[in-house]
Amino acid sequence: MNSLISSPLLPGAHLRVDGVSLAFADRRVLTDVSFVVSAGERVGIIGENGSGKSTLLRIIAGLLPPDSGAVTVNATAGLTPSIGLLHQDAPFTPGDSIAQALESAVAPARDVLAAMDRHAAQMAADPDDHDAAARYAQTLDDAERLEAWDVDARIAAMLAGLGLDDLPTDRLTSEISGGQRARLSLAWLLLSAPDVLLLDEPTNHLDDHATAYLRSILLAWRGPVLFASHDRAFLDETVTSLIDLDPAPVPHAVAGPLTVDGPGSGIGITRFTGSYSDYLAARNQARIRWETQYRDEQAELKRLRASVRDNHVVGHENWKPRTEVRGAAKFYSDRNAAVVSRRVNDARSRLDDLEQRQIRRPPAGLRFGGLTAGLELRNRREFSGPVLAASEVAVSGRLESVSLTVSATEKWLVTGPNGSGKSTLLEVLAGQLDPTGGSVNAPAGLRIGMLSQDVDLPDPFERGDQRSVRQAYQDLLGAELAEQAPLSRFGLIAGRDENRPLLALSLGQQRRLALAVLLADPPDVLLLDEPTNHLSLLLVTELEAAIPGYPGTVVVASHDRWLRRNWTGQRFEMAADGDSPV
């Protein structure tokens, strides 16, 4: 796919991060992070939820000061380089129309063309005005760099590429859906064409067409690109290298005791050149080497400590010289002392050296406990035949007429382009949204649970920021159920994070908590809306593997190509103007 969008690269521009560290009041997040992203490189950031991916991007964008270290963008053109970040906050106000939002993105290009017209008029009025001629030449260079003459074509291509071309441009941005607003934010950033492009989960609200369009833009981007993403297929097809923020086998003396930060805190980074698929194999091998080295070092430390403690004589401790001559006894005694001293000193020297350079113990990490985590479906009834029957279901303005029948224990994948109504269908099936047409029938007593795209963890006691993760879990389940199904059982939230304020967690960690709340009392029908969004790559893989074994019914709505590629259950593909079951 050809793209009309490219970056106005400052020649030689590259991003440099030197020794960046940041700690919050309750934990260390980033420690001594250093790397370089050169012009034309596309680097993906990966790591567990809460490892600091979004934090690192905000530091690079200048939105969050680090405790130490520096971020620089070097260029040779003598111009001030720009850094653009796609994150949760939209770059336009709710009172802006779509047209106004887009115009604010291309304002520099429009301004350059207006300046060229002014300088041209000055030159026409006074051909001898050399200053006007110089200013005109400079603005001409700027216009070429900004591709100012192609602005309207770029806007049209961007709207079509990201699936926004059917929206009236006079509509207020506050009146469009959350997914459309996210895509408009992405369009704004790409049209503004920063020299350094930073993206936080750029494919969360993109269908196949929009994802392919974004990929074509990034492959042609001439400046440094750094992005955090859960999208495994997108990583595979786009990155030139990967940066992993998860713990690496650094020396114990550098890492400090695990009790300070817990097993999730990394020191520095691990960088890998290649695709995500290649990295999976390399990471597994690296983990094996780390565990082997740690085991061997601990065995050697144990041996050396015993040697320092026990080696005080040479040979058998009851051995006596054959001669009774006093001088001979003293000779052998002195020789024994010298040999023992050398041996003990040598062992102590090697012990001190190994204690200083021994690598950190490999952290256990989080391992997903499964969709039931060993829990029984409480008050479970055995259902047979259809458990959800949607007949001609429609929601005005959101979902065209859809019919779907889901039977007990079946696993369904709902797919379709943006605007086809996947999320709306799940909300109707969950009983969270009343249809304006059609009906949904379910047997009496059927228990339905849904993981929504948006994290919603209501606080009945209005404790706000002061509510801890553990308190939130208990609030949402009740003390009795929270005790029967402890949060630690699911392997979704690290123990060190359970006492942290809920709102101090990353979005991915908050979504993990919402999943744990849902699974603490496993429903008969489990609805998952874009379950791979914001979750770590490892958890996504484990979650997918657990779906076939769920004892109830599962319906997943997803645009994730990796998940779709490996799906073995039933499929239901929705079109933008209706439905077409597959």
From TrEMBL:
Superkingdom to which the source organism belongs: Bacteria
Annotated ranges, domain ABC transporter: 15-272, 375-582
Single GO MF descriptor: ATP hydrolysis activity
UniProt keyword annotations, A-Z: ATP-binding, Nucleotide-binding, Repeat
Protein name: ABC-F family ATP-binding cassette domain-containing protein
